[in-house]
Give the backbone structure.
Amino acid sequence: MIVAISISPSGADETGGVSESVAEAVKVIRESGLPNETNAMFTNIEGEWDEVMAVVKRAVFKVAETSPRVGLVLKADLRQGYDDGQLAGKVQRVEARLS
């Protein structure tokens, strides 16, 4: 499965930014060892249901250490017969159709 998540604290810094808290969540995700990638809006994580959801939970709780309220947006793609390598595989299939 692949999940795209966005975790955000309820409060921001003096500029309105949340990058410090987001960086803490991304650190948890990267340390998990699961395939992942971060872009401007989401972090994508690939793995089995239980292991991905455990990482999401740890990342949310990490942000909750410094924020009384945490927002989580999660989108999941579960596709039978497609396991590892889909972070790149999905993009490759689209790119191939653009050629």
The beta strands are 2-9, 36-38, 43-46, 70-77. The first strand starts at residue 2 and ends at 9.
